[in-house]
Amino acid sequence: MAKRLLRNRNEIEEILLRHSDTVYKIAYLRAGNVHDAEDIMQEVFLRFVKYSPVFETPEHEKAWFIRTTINRTNSFFTSAWKRRVVPLDETIKSYDEMSDSEVLDAVMQLPKDISTAIHLYYYEDMTVKEISETMNKSESAVKSLLFRGRKLLKLSLEDTYR
Fold it and tell me: Which residue ranges form the domains of the chain, and what is each CATH number?
């Protein structure tokens, strides 16, 4: 990512709008609350504006935003600031555009790697190969995460509807 591209304000806004849903959903899925997801989203977008990376394809651009969101989320939860903050009881409604909140809640209860793989596969329509490259895992590891995720979701949702 040594190359940088000077973009005008409209180009930047267009790119950020194109990826805002994906970045927010992944950040929310991994962070578990609106406030942290918004902070992470802001960090990802600031990083984009600061480094102004050049992308070979639209897929490469999307992968950069996904990978950066995952990395910023991981960094966010290992920072000294986050360790000192006491989480408040979340009383704010979840992201309005998300459909089927029971499934989303169940996905959010999964371990982070599993929930990320499930989200990328089902919500972002990424292939196993693309997910493996994005998450820096082998394809078999991603398949295993998806299998375990489906199994855990099935158990969780069966309990909900009994």
Answer: 1-93 (1.10.1740), 99-162 (1.10.10.10)
| Nearest residue to 63 (alpha-carbon basis) of 146, 120, 3 | 120
Indicate whether 91 pLDDT > 90: no
What angle in degrees, to the nearest 10, is found between the helix axes of 58-78 and 34-51? 120
Say which residues have a Cβ less than 8 Å from residue 121's Cβ, sequence separation at least 6: 128, 131, 146
Residues facing 53 on adjacent strands: 4
Q: How far is the C-alpha of 157 from the C-alpha of 162, rounded, in Å?
A: 9
What is this structure's pTM? 0.60
**C-beta neighbour count of 116 within 10 angstroms:** 25
Predicted confidence (pLDDT) per residue in 62-77, tens digit: 999 999 999 999 888 7
